[in-house]
């Protein structure tokens, strides 16, 4: 299917990163089963919520920093390096696709990226080291050095609108694909879970590689269960 495809989209979820040691937040035992998520509204309204959100982010990003791209991440990057027309749409916020060498202009991080902060007003980027230093120095949540606005991790929080530009690009990429690969996503988080449906309506073949069943398994042209790294290691070696 990869050999025959002219335009490939890989849609990745938590399952590709669990094999790098990053926990799936939504699964039993994951973070959201142990801690109540801090919503966007709570973050904006409460200094206490902001400080707790940043405390969690620092812990989370220590896990991200220790993780390394696995064979699944590396195989997708190797397909691009081999000259294939491939793009990635990811639900993950860990930055592992970037660290695998995949270029930003072919990557959409639908839910953002937890490895840096961003001003909610002017969108100025703020590195985590600067965020931590600001909190340590003042005891208060960080403010934008440009406009003074609130700085939040550059992720889509519960209750926060999805970035329209990123979602519009993801829809366009999905419509143009002739192979759409779902890799490690349960396909239950909306609106991202509509993307394989859009690709299918546009005529794409659909391959699903996931540990557990998904709502679209019956629509797939190819359904693979097992280790994502092992499956894509073979693809990378043969590609």
UniProtKB/TrEMBL annotation:
<keyword id="KW-0808">Transferase</keyword>
<feature type="binding site">
    <location>
        <position position="144"/>
    </location>
    <ligand>
        <name>Zn(2+)</name>
    </ligand>
</feature>
<dbReference type="InterPro" id="IPR029035">
    <property type="entry name" value="DHS-like_NAD/FAD-binding_dom"/>
</dbReference>
<dbReference type="GO" id="GO:0046872">
    <property type="term" value="F:metal ion binding"/>
</dbReference>
<feature type="binding site">
    <location>
        <position position="122"/>
    </location>
    <ligand>
        <name>Zn(2+)</name>
    </ligand>
</feature>
<dbReference type="Pfam" id="PF02146">
    <property type="entry name" value="SIR2"/>
</dbReference>
<dbReference type="InterPro" id="IPR003000">
    <property type="entry name" value="Sirtuin"/>
</dbReference>
<keyword id="KW-0520">NAD</keyword>
<protein>
    <recommendedName>
        <fullName>protein acetyllysine N-acetyltransferase</fullName>
        <ecNumber>2.3.1.286</ecNumber>
    </recommendedName>
</protein>
<dbReference type="GO" id="GO:0017136">
    <property type="term" value="F:histone deacetylase activity, NAD-dependent"/>
</dbReference>
<dbReference type="InterPro" id="IPR050134">
    <property type="entry name" value="NAD-dep_sirtuin_deacylases"/>
</dbReference>
<feature type="binding site">
    <location>
        <position position="147"/>
    </location>
    <ligand>
        <name>Zn(2+)</name>
    </ligand>
</feature>
<dbReference type="InterPro" id="IPR026591">
    <property type="entry name" value="Sirtuin_cat_small_dom_sf"/>
</dbReference>
<keyword id="KW-0862">Zinc</keyword>
<keyword id="KW-0479">Metal-binding</keyword>
<feature type="active site" description="Proton acceptor">
    <location>
        <position position="111"/>
    </location>
</feature>
<feature type="binding site">
    <location>
        <position position="119"/>
    </location>
    <ligand>
        <name>Zn(2+)</name>
    </ligand>
</feature>
<dbReference type="GO" id="GO:0070403">
    <property type="term" value="F:NAD+ binding"/>
</dbReference>
<dbReference type="InterPro" id="IPR026590">
    <property type="entry name" value="Ssirtuin_cat_dom"/>
</dbReference>
<feature type="domain" description="Deacetylase sirtuin-type">
    <location>
        <begin position="1"/>
        <end position="239"/>
    </location>
</feature>
